[in-house]
Amino acid sequence: MTAPAENPSAGALVSDLPIASGHRMASRLNTWGADARVRDDFENAAAAYEAAQWAIPGNPSPISNLAEILVHQGRHDEAIAAAEMACRIDPEVAEVWYGLGKTLWAAGDPERAIPCFSEALRREQGHVMALHNLAICCLATERFEAGWSAYRWRVTVAHRPDVPRIPIPAGWKGRVHVACEQGLGDVLFFARWLPILREKGAEEIWCAWPTKIAPVMRRAFPGVLEGFGDDGCIDMRMGDLPFLTQTPGPLPSVVVPAAKYRSREDAFRCRAPWVGLTWRAGAPSRRFGLNKRVDPKTLLSVVAGLGGTACPVQRGITNDEIETLHDYPGRSTWDFMLEANEEADDPAEALDSIADLDAYVTVSNTNVHLLAALPEAQRPKCHVLVTHPPEHRWLSAGDSSPWFPGIKVHRQRPDGSWPADMVQRIVEDIRA
């Protein structure tokens, strides 16, 4: 039998097979497709899934898998058509509706994705990934109440029977330990609800702050006790606070003043404006499609247009990235300073460093939450390049987010491209 990598024709792969072997062949083809998918070999993965359709006509699984591959190839219209076909083949299967919703979300259409995730949940109430994606799409389209309700079942927490799942009742009083979860940026984001939790009756709040962010959180919440509390404390998770407090927001960021300013005249001889740059955040996620990375040359184009100073604020900067920054064409028209980057790994130091910038151009990362926490007088202009699909806090459309007032948003298209005039618009705004 010839493998799909050598002969991608669906007909050639299965035309000589006896009908009785169809199920076994379909299983093998699905396995080949999955193996190719892991290698990012989308062409052969697609060929295997197409062949699997012919092995067992009427089975929605291969065509649903094909839709996912077409998404990764940027063929969104074909992907939607394939996912819709899977739903027509067997509309009683929750997974095909989840697949269609995921495909529509990847294509930038959350409005159509939401009823698909809801349909998947109607057929399988405990479909965790459908719940997770329903939450993201609702939050991204400003359906905050529904979004936070579904967010309780996010896959990063899963089903925890030991934490509250109902809103805090009126007249409640108690002591609480709030568990931090997910990334440092999420800790800063969800900390907005700690004052609301106290208003709702929390007489004592304990948090075991992650070590890296602890100095910043102590500045922001001197009244919060640091640690895990005791047996008398009720355990809550930070990401559940919007639902538990029944306060969907948007809420303003926590406020953390910068502790110091540096003297430019004494320390540096660099041209203004000082522009902070961060071009990647976290690790690419196959599960959720997040890949918060842009070409650093795109950000350097902003500095070149301003004739100022490039100040990387990139955690874990590599020697190759430093070489790219140094070798950027037109370098003679602007200055370069790695001083800010030396503090990028320490959130408290990064907070103070960001306050010393004139502007910050970045992907969504912890530093954006730090910048948003600065008092307005200390906050530089900020432009966030939101990669697709967006995190829910940046919504699905528009040039701003109600969670981060004053920060300008620039959106990557579903095909991976950026607006042609994006750099020029950023330059003009920073100059203004």
Which strand order do you get reading across the main beta sheet?
Answer: 7-6-5-8-9-10
Determine the N-to-C terminus distance: 66 Å
Q: What would the average pLDDT be, to the nearest integer?
A: 87
Assigned CATH architecture of the largest domain: 3-Layer(aba) Sandwich
What percent of residues are in strands?
A: 5-15%
Number of strands: 10
**SSE sequence, one letter per element:** HHHHHHHHHEHHEHEEHHEHEHEHEHEEH
Q: How large, in whole angstroms, is the Cα Rg?
A: 25 Å
The CATH superfamily of the largest domain is known as Glycogen Phosphorylase B
Main beta-sheet strand count, sense and barrel state: 6 strands, parallel
Low-confidence stretches: 1-20
Q: How would you classify the quaternary structure? A: single chain
CATH topology heading of the largest domain: Rossmann fold
The number of helical segments is 19
Number of separate structural domains: 3
Mass-distribution shape: globular
- Helices and strands: which structural class? alpha/beta
CATH class of the largest domain: Alpha Beta
